């Protein structure tokens, strides 16, 4: 990867795509997903349990 930010962005996008198939979200995923969203200017993650 050309930079750490590029690698982190790819990880964020991959996780955002696979979370659609999750049956039950991980307990700490909302916190991590919202931190990614802040870093990359995305909308905060809304996960209903």
UniProtKB/TrEMBL annotation:
This is IS256 family transposase. It comes from Duganella lactea.
